[in-house]
Every structure is written in C-alpha cells, then in structure tokens.
Design a protein that fits this description.
By secondary structure, the protein is of the alpha+beta class. The protein has 4 domains: 3-88 and 239-244; 93-149, Beta Barrel (OB fold (Dihydrolipoamide Acetyltransferase, E2P)); 152-220, no CATH class; 274-434, FomD barrel-like fold, CATH 2.40.380. Helix content is 23%, strand content 32%. The chain is built from 8 helices and 25 strands. The protein has helices at residues 11-20, 64-77, 174-186, 205-217, 247-258, 267-272, 398-403, 410-434; strands at 3-6, 24-25, 47-51, 57-62, 82-85, 93-101, 105-109, 114-118, 131-138, 145-147, 151-153, 157-160, 165-167, 193-196, 232-235, 239-244, 283-289, 297-306, 310-316, 335-341, 346-352, 358-366, 370-371, 375-387, 394-396. It has a 7-stranded mixed β-barrel with strand order 17-18-19-20-21-22-24. The chain has a 6-stranded mixed β-sheet with strand order 2-1-3-4-16-5, with helices on one face. Strands 6, 7, 8, 9, 10 and 15 form a 6-stranded antiparallel β-sheet that branches. The longest helix has 25 residues, at 410-434. The termini are far apart. The model has no long low-confidence stretch (mean pLDDT 93).
Length: 435
C-alpha cells in the first residue's frame, strides 16, 4: 500500500481516511505521531498532500499510480469533492522563452502554456525572446509560478542551485547530522548543493550515495536543448492534482477528524474563513466557482435580509444583452434578488424590472453553500433550472454537467440531476398553486 505525507488544515482528517483504508502515514504531524508506528516518523513517502493557497482544498503530489489511487479514495469518501489534474507538474523544469513583461514580472512561454516569473527572482531585466531555464514552483489557477532556482528532488535528498549542505530540522540527532553533513560535502560541486530530507535519517550510506549520483546524472539534461528557440520540458516533475473541498466535503472531513481528535462541527470551514454572519446593508461577494477554475466569477451584492441559516442579497444589473438561460433582455434598472441557505444544494435568483415586475427565475444547482463573513461560496455544477413568466420550469445545460464527470464522483452527478428535477417540480407546483 502507498505511504502518504500530510500537511495543512486537512492533515488530520485525511490521515483518518488514509489509515482507515490501510495507507501508511509517513512523517506525521505532531498531533498524529502517537497514532502511527514510531518508525514512520522518518519514512519516505509516495504521495504528498498540502493545502492550496486559498485553503479551499489541497494539492496532491506524487507518481501517477499513487495520485490515481488517492483520487479514487477521495471520490469514494467525500460527497462533493472535485479533483482536477493541474496544467503541469510541480517541480517540472522547462526551457522557457520570455514572452511579455508585466508590472510584477514576466510571462514565460513554456510551450503549451504560459508561466509567470516574479521579477523578485531576477538580478537583471530580461529581454523578449530570451531563453531561460525555469522550474514550476507553485500551481495556481491562471498561470503556474516559475522560478529560476532549480532543484532535483529524490526520496532522501534534494540537489539545489545553492552551495552548501542543508539538513531537515526533523533530524535532531547530532551524530546523524554530522554523518549527513560529511556525506553531503562530498557531492557539492559546480554550483549545486545538497539538502537532506527527513527520510534520510539513518538510511544506509549506499542508498544515499546512489540517489545523489542518479540525480547528478540528470544535470546535463538541463544544460542543453535541441533548439534554444523552442520552449519545452527538460525534466518531469510530480504529477499534481488540484482538489476542491466544497461545503459537503468539509462537513464529512469534520467527522473524519473527530475520529482522531475532538472536533467541533464546522471546524474546517472556520479554518478557511471568518464564519461571522453577514449583516443587513453589508456588501459581500458571491464566489461562483467553476470547473475549470479560470472561468470562476466574483460578483458583488448587498445583503437585504438575514435569518439564522440564510441571507438574501440584491444585485443591480448592469450591461446589456440577455439573461443567460432565460433569453430575456436586460434592461436599465433591472435588479436580482437571491436567497442563500447555508448547506443548500441550490439557490434561486429572481430577476425584476425597474418597476418590480418579475422577469424570470433562475435556479443554480451547486455544491452545498458556504456562508462566510464577507462572501458566499459554492461550486457550480453546471446543470440549472429556469422559469419564464407564464411558462413551466425546465432543466437546462445538462450536457455541461456530463463534462464534469471526469472530475467528480458518479454520485455527485446523480445528486445534481436529482436536485434539478426537484426544483422543477417545486417551481411548477408553486406556479400551479398561484393560478
């Protein structure tokens, strides 16, 4: 079975999931060390899981088989988790071509996509068309962040473009640190240094030497390229999976965490953002998350009513054209009223004309709604329900839901269909009752 290293706010909950399925938790965080085999404290790992920058999910890093196995585990255990392969691999090294200068750095053409190189990485300006070797440092939705400081990682050691020897802070035994320092100094050459990982602790000297030598044999591949004018990958990195934990997944992860340590309901949501309830008159954001995430939308609205479990907001409609799905023209003075219920799998928006005449109803089907102090957040499940005045409600965009099937569980796809059907029935019943 695979071994996994977990870090971040979801570490304990995911450790409970992994242990339940027979996985080995390597290099456990302090709160888990008493619950795993003491030998695993320094064990190497096949898979690493860390928080995303927004803490709304995690990055899963490792070889293809291990990442695939963990994806299947998440889809089986979490009701609304979304797992999307990253555009590239974390740690992959590219020959890039400087494409465009920006205020904070440079866009770098990496072949099939662009990376962003912060100017803080550089000691001198770059020219358009200049070739430069870079490494994927951070996976973000719009463009991966790259660095000019290259490194090659193994299970026990990392070679890096920084002279000297570094040793994991987890290795505190003075004799072991002395041994690793001595060995590392033998291999520092040509501008490359050595960093010993936690898993190097008390490993056989032959294994440590062998890994360094294997990594060093890869160094020449970074120096050349068939054509300096053509961008492309020089060395692969770790397969990277971007996982989103919407409201339903956070609730289930609360329950998994409670199996190991005391956990209050709503723990993971509270770790992501302030759960204080919005106030009437407050301006908040509606974070309409899409898959893929670069299509996500952030809208501003004003709170007009609150209850212990819901908020109602109003948006003033600007621009021209027609309302998506309703195919009704937008007009000056139109406004929209939406009620968001904490944990609901849908929400209803009613569009009105300047004089308060109902123009149409749009029901969005989504992952369970999360309400924070400054925003409402959910992931759009693509399938929706619309109702025009005097017409029955109908489901739209079901093919778009099918396009998400590769990223989510079959159960989530079916849940979205069921919610949409229930919303159609509810709207038609209400319309019939009003006649």
């Amino acid at each position: 079975m695979y071994s996994i290293r977990l870090r971040g706010i979801y570490a304990t909950a995911l450790a409970a999931v992994a242990l339940e399925h027979g996985w080995r938790v390597a290099q456990p965080p302090e709160e888990l060390q008493s619950r795993v085999n003491p030998e695993d404290r320094f064990a190497p790992f096949d898979l690493e899981v860390r928080d995303r920058d927004d803490r709304q999910g995690v990055l899963v890093l490792g070889d293809t088989n291990a990442v695939g196995a963990f994806k299947r585990l998440l889809l089986a255990e979490l009701p609304d988790v979304i797992c999307v392969p990253a555009l590239t691999e974390l740690g992959a090294i590219y020959l890039g071509i400087v494409h465009k200068r920006r205020a904070l750095g440079y866009e770098i053409d990496l072949g099939n996509f662009m990376g962003f190189l912060p100017k803080t990485e550089l000691t001198h300006p770059l020219k358009k068309g200049e070739a430069i070797r870079v490494q994927i440092r951070e996976i973000v939705h719009v463009q991966p962040i790259v660095t000019t400081q290259l490194s090659l990682a193994g299970r026990f050691v990392v070679l890096c473009q920084k002279q000297g020897v570094g040793i994991s802070k987890e290795i505190i035994d003075p004799d072991e640190r002395k041994r690793l320092l001595s060995l590392g100094r033998r291999y520092c050459a040509n501008g490359w240094g050595v960093i010993w990982r936690t898993s190097a602790y008390r490993k056989d000297l032959r294994d440590l030497k062998s890994e360094i030598e294997i990594l060093q044999r890869d160094l020449p591949t970074l120096e050349g390229h068939p054509d300096e004018g053509i961008p492309g990958k020089l060395r692969s990195g770790q397969m990277t999976l971007i996982c989103e934990f919407p409201g339903g997944s956070k609730q289930v992860l609360d329950q998994w965490r409670a199996r190991l340590i005391p956990t209050e309901p709503g723990y993971h949501q509270s770790q992501v953002g302030d759960r204080a309830w919005p106030r009437v008159g407050q301006s908040i954001f509606i974070e309409h998350v899409k898959v893929p995430s670069e299509l996500s939308v952030l809208m501003r609205a004003r709170v007009i009513a609150v209850s212990p479990s819901s908020i109602t907001v109003r948006r003033e409609i600007k621009g021209t054209g027609v309302y998506d799905g309703l195919n009704i023209p937008k007009e000056s003075g139109d406004y929209a009223v939406t009620e968001f219920l904490q944990g609901a799998w849908h929400y209803e928006t009613r569009y009105y004309s300047r004089n308060g005449l109902l123009k149409g109803i749009y029901v969005n089907i989504n992952t369970p709604i999360e309400i924070y102090a400054d925003r409402v957040r959910y992931v759009d499940l693509e399938i929706d329900v619309v109702q025009r005045p005097t017409e029955p409600a109908q489901v739209i965009d079901e093919p778009k839901l099918e396009s998400m099937a590769q990223y989510v569980s079959s159960g989530l796809v079916q849940r979205a269909r069921t919610v949409a059907a229930e919303c159609v029935q509810m709207l038609n019943h209400c319309a019939h009752g009003a006649e």
